[in-house]
């Protein structure tokens, strides 16, 4: 992605500078590595990189090709932290990979979708076998299972092909598949070429939630860096939600969308704000616990029956508590 310098937001950057310094973070001898794949819900991290907030705190943004690559990076230690969906974090924890969720980022309210060449009534009568392309991810599995349940269909009618995210646009327009399971910005790009949304994350009974995950080894020795990363997220999120045209225009170009298309894509996401962040991962009845329980039910056929992970060892509250204290 081409880099264009923007003025940093005035609301949070001074806090970052006062608390952690605006020179390179001396606590991290080498840049910490944050993995982020192409997804509009992670764009605040892209803004944080562009503003210099990440590098000032010793973080380097690694743009991974897919969520699978981000998982692999945490698994083998080439990444120290990564943005991913809750179900992907659960998969790592249940392997087990020593990781912790330190922040809830957003909820997909339609930004993950099944896109078809034709409206469903035409697709359903087209053939006995439906050819489906998808990334090898648990979110795609959730969408597909939700779609089958909603339509009263059996998985036997599906012919699945695994296609990496960067090949989604090409695969869909090849005409080889009846449906493609994908996410923004690819959903909006496919709609421009005639794609029809026949099911999306807003139709699911289970929320698709994005979280920030760190390796426990890194967290134990770099808690201040994790705290700074959370504050950098909120700084950038404040800039993004301000809806400034120059910011949206830059991000939309990287997504292959017009500014208005990008603005519309953002409406299919619910970002978790500062005030609600603790209610998601802390307190007596954290919302994330309910989401984990729902996911275990939906993913019970994906080797989760014997899961031993629980809320206490999946979530680390220290960084968000300290970050929120600085913002009060």
Brief descriptors of the model:
alpha/beta, D-Maltodextrin-Binding Protein, domain 2, 2 domains, five-stranded mixed sheet, 45% helix, globular, disordered N terminus
Broad shape? globular
Computed structural class: alpha/beta
SSE order, one letter for each helix or strand = HEHHEHEHEEHEHEHEHEEHHHHEHHHH
CATH topology of the largest domain: D-Maltodextrin-Binding Protein, domain 2
Task: Report the CATH architecture of the largest domain.
Answer: 3-Layer(aba) Sandwich
Model regions low in confidence, pLDDT < 50 over at least 5 residues: 1-27, 301-309
Percent range of helical residues: 40-55%
Number of helices: 17
The level-1 CATH class of the largest domain: Alpha Beta
Biggest pleated sheet: 6 strands, mixed
- Count the domains: 2
Oligomeric grouping of the chains:
single chain
- Average pLDDT confidence is 84
Q: What's the total number of strands?
A: 11
What fraction strand?
Answer: 15-25%
CATH H level, superfamily name of the largest domain: Periplasmic binding protein-like II
Cα(first) to Cα(last) distance is 35 Å
**Radius of gyration, whole Å:** 20 Å
Strand order of the largest sheet: 2-1-3-10-4-11
